[in-house]
Amino acid sequence: MGQPLYRIPKPDLEKCGIDLSQISPAERQDLENTNNFAQFYATDFIHAFRSLGCGQKIVWSHELYETGKMDDLIRLALDQVQALKKIYQEVAKYQLPENWYPFQVICPVCGKIGTTLVTAWDGQEVTFECQENKVSWAKGCGYKAKISPFGGTGKLLWKVDWPAHWAALGVNVEGAGKDHSSAGGSRDMANAECQQVFHIPVPFNIPYEWILIRGAKMSSSKGVGISAREFSKLLPPTVGRFLFASRPYTQVIDFDPGTMAIPDLFDEYDQGAKIAWGLEEGDQRLARAFQLAQVAQVQPTSFLPRFRDVVIWMQDPELNLETEFAKVKKAPLNDIEKALIKERRGYAEIWLANYAPSEYQLRPKATFPVEAKILSNEQKKFLRDLQILLANNENLPAATLQQKIYELAKNSIGAKKAFESIYLLLLGKKAGPRAAWLLRATSAELLASRFDDLAKLS
Ligand SMILES: [Zn+2]
User: Fold this and answer.
1) Rounded to the nearest whole angstrom, what is the distance from the C-alpha of residue 36 to the centroid of ligand 1?
2) 218, 252 in Cβ contact below 8 A?
3) What is the distance in A from the centroid of ligand 1 to the CA of 115?
4) E strand segments, 92-209
5) Which of 39, 57, 360, 436 has the smallest count of CB within 10 Å of its CB?
6) The domain defined by 370-456 carries CATH number 3.40.50.300
7) What confidence tens digit (pLDDT) does each residue in 101-132 have?
8) Domain-by-domain residue ranges, the chain?
């Protein structure tokens, strides 16, 4: 604690907290190639936005300092400490102590930066001490000395460091989360420093709203939010970009993957596409968002397989997605459309496995569903008869099997109660896809164990 993050070793891959099953071999290699803690976690984040087709050049702050690109700005800030103090006072109403300087030294003895305090500046060197009890979360070593502030021996304090970066890099547009733009906040301070200390034009501001996941800020802490990486796995890059491009940046995006938000977003994307292609009338902003959402090249006019149809149909073992969508299109599918079905199927699998409301889950549950406990005695009797029917008709085609089940139902408890019992036993719900196909798609082991559990139910 207290050391600059870029000087802390990277964590073991196995203990880093990143879900390694979600990363590609190339991404894993990138993580293994990092040199420190900061670079390690930044790389994970960079992967997430690279997947959205963003190709920014990455500038590492500590390299700016080490290569001397901040030196002139450090000198300006130290020379004009009185002007800075006045800004802190006037903009943020913050009274600074007498011996305050906008610079923190990395202690050459213990390596900590959080524990050091600069107490003087003579135009060549700063005087500093590494204080034992400056902060509660780290202990300093007590070392006192003079050191040149240039070439990476320390860094400017964050509220001065931010505009100094704009000066060093020639930034003319700078967005940040809206919390930075509150009155008297870091953005107001930085703007004043641009004008009064660094003498550069104030960059154009884009104070953007937050993205919330189920009402919580994005974070990797389990159960609350979601990391950028997890978010990027929920949607294809095009649809992910569409989400950002279609909402005003001043509007909060509250996204709950456990609702119909994902299927709805796909529908909206498809609508934007149809408007952009001139196939439908509608809101031109949606069309523009669709265009901006394209990653590699603009998608040519094609038939779009509806996401929620993919979700339902792919769970029906009788249906072939390409055949079904060709029927909807009323024409054979081209390669782009087939690839799109494959892509959407992949995201549908993720949604189904992790987030989809239960009415969209049409596959047998892995364990005995609690809902099946409401089965009546006559339904249990029907299921025992069904077990015998299945045992005697192992190789029957699904269509013929369906007919046999129907006959068994009609001659005992009636079709409604009978099929309901099958769905309760396999899915834990009262309705589902056609029973024979569902049974055929269920593995023999799972079916056997399910009937065993049923027998144990008194
Ligand atoms: Zn120290």
Assistant:
1) 20
2) no
3) 7
4) 103-105, 116-121, 126-130, 144-147, 154-156, 173-177, 204-208
5) 57
6) no
7) 999 999 999 999 999 999 999 999 999 999 99
8) 5-56, 66-171+180-204, 212-359, 370-456
